[in-house]
What we know:
Layout: E1 7-10, H1 17-31, H2 35-57, E2 59-63, E3 66-71, E4 77-82, E5 86-92, H3 95-99, E6 104-109, E7 120-123, H4 128-146, H5 150-180
Antiparallel strand pairs: 1-2, 2-3, 3-4, 5-6, 6-7
Helix pairs in contact: 1-2
Amino acid sequence: MTLESNLIQKAEFNPKIKTYILITIAFFLLITVIGIPILIIWLLGLGQYISKRYYENISCELTSHHLEFKKGVLFKVEKTIPLENIQDLTFIENPLLKYLDLRILKIETAGQSNPKGSDMQLIGIIGAAEFKKSVLHQRELLKTNERPSFNKSETSNEQINRTLIEIRDILNEIKNNKTLNP
């Protein structure tokens, strides 16, 4: 069963993501003894190249049924999360994110594969609060459209009753035939 999904909103990402990635990885390289020699290479150009490629490859689209996300440089990740599975949308800030005017939007789903983490983290969406509202609004629209109406379940119950009556009648015929023809 395939549902046709229409694009509702495409998230735009802040170019300051490149600076955030560069500084964050440089910090982790600095605090490790082994990472200090790599830090020099990172700051001399590799960091800018990888940060730029990450920014170019990141995208997020809200469709009528899903949230679709793509990211990665060497290892690419594509995730499609059904809107009905989204349980929580959380904003995360830290001093570096605040300085760069960025936010992380953390998406948690029902039955997520990693119980300690989130299913998806979106860094640096421009207008993150509005994007969050759009996702929640679309999720509610989807949930209200999928609720079964009372008439549908009544029709379904009538069909089940009719089928059960037919089965009962067939069993009675078989029983009567056995008693007549021993």
